[in-house]
């Protein structure tokens, strides 16, 4: 495996670069050293498909074992994408020895720098307790990346194609769960059934729910996890207190009550299922969703979530809670109302639309 480093990174590693050698672009990476939040961060970008791997919080001792850390980061990130173990090993063993050289050309450096910009932009996703930044990797590899002449690719989808070519077989396999997610409204039925891999993290589950309910991801959220009792049945949420509150922002710890609180970063669904989950979004409008397991799917052959059923349009963003939604529906159902056109246009800008499974599933492929 060839790691083509900027001068800054080579100086930090203290290695003498090898002479430029030829390597299959699938096993070649360009790498740069950044300072993000005063912590040393290495960003690697694959030469063939622009797939990025981010290592964060590196210390001097870590630089001495950077090769092992890179391999571990690739393995963990591929595992998070539900790629089969044998495919991961085939990729890593195809080019097992790591060599460090100078960067190849300005085009490759420019593409790497774009990935570095994305790391800065999504800096809140960085996990200070882990060197390998799985959440960051998954997020930035789902973004469009330019490859010249107004042409763009999705790095993760390009990587999937290349791994299938290498392995000569389907590359995905995972355990998944079918979940029914219901928005708690007094007078309307709004729910979705989705299938998600059980290794899905809670931050990613949040992004999935934003898509299936057409929310705009403008507000904070949290999850409450409720236990199961001794006979395996989920305790009703009004009969017991949660076992943990998973939050998305450290500010939440200033308001901690009796329920133990954790940051949701890196925590997977599999760590708590089959417990009932309550998802709260927008603490102003206060949208509460219940999440229950319908069934477990042992051999799921996709690595992205799908929506299989649903009913009802979710309220538009910032409508003012359930009372505001009621007023919105009254106005938009009356073409003679003086605010009809304005409210209809406003609702569309806020993402309001009827349930459309096909549209949702197109978006879920990119999550």
TrEMBL record:
SUPFAM superfamilies the record matches: MM3350-like
Stored InterPro entries: DUF6933 (IPR053864), MM3350-like_sf (IPR024047), Plasmid_pRiA4b_Orf3-like (IPR012912)
Gene3D superfamilies: MM3350-like (3.10.290.30)
Pfam name, any one: DUF6933
Domain DUF6933: 2-158
UniProt-listed PANTHER family: LEXA REPRESSOR-RELATED (PTHR41878), TNPR PROTEIN (PTHR41878:SF1)
Domain of life: Bacteria
The name this protein goes by in its record: Plasmid pRiA4b ORF-3 family protein
Ranges for domain Plasmid pRiA4b Orf3-like: 176-362
Ranges that cross the membrane: none
């Amino acid at each position: 495996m060839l790691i083509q480093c900027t001068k800054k990174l080579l100086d930090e590693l203290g290695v003498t670069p090898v002479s430029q050698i030829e390597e299959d672009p699938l096993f070649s990476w360009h790498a740069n050293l950044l300072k993000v939040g005063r912590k040393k961060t290495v960003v690697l970008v694959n030469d063939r498909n622009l797939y990025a791997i981010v290592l964060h919080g590196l210390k001097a001792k870590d630089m001495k074992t950077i090769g092992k850390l890179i391999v571990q980061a690739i393995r963990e990130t591929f595992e998070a994408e539900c790629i089969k173990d044998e495919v991961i090993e085939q990729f890593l063993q195809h080019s097992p020895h790591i060599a460090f050289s100078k960067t190849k050309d300005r085009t490759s450096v420019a593409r790497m720098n774009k990935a570095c910009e994305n790391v800065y932009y999504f800096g809140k996703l960085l996990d200070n307790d882990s060197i390998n930044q799985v959440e960051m990797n998954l997020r930035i590899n789902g973004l469009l990346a330019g490859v010249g002449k107004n042409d763009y690719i999705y790095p993760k989808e390009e990587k999937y194609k290349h791994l299938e070519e290498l392995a000569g077989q389907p590359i995905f396999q995972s355990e998944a769960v079918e979940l029914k997610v219901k928005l708690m409204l007094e007078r309307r039925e709004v729910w979705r059934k989705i299938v998600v891999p059980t290794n899905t993290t809670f931050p990613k589950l949040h992004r999935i729910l934003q898509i299936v309910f057409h929310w705009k991801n403008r507000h904070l959220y949290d999850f409450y996890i409720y236990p199961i009792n001794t006979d395996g049945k989920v305790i009703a949420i009004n009969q017991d207190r949660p076992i943990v509150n998973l939050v998305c922002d450290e500010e939440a710890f200033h308001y901690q009550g009796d329920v133990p609180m954790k940051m949701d970063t890196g925590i997977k669904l599999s760590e708590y299922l089959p417990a009932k989950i309550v998802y709260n979004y927008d603490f102003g409008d206060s949208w509460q969703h219940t999440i229950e397991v319908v069934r477990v799917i042992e051999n799921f052959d996709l690595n992205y979530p799908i929506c299989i059923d649903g009913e009802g349009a979710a309220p538009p963003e910032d409508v003012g809670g359930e009372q505001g939604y009621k007023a919105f529906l009254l106005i938009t159902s009356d073409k003679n109302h003086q605010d009809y056109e304005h409210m209809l246009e406003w609702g569309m800008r806020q993402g309001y639309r009827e349930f459309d499974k096909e549209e949702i599933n197109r978006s879920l492929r990119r999550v």
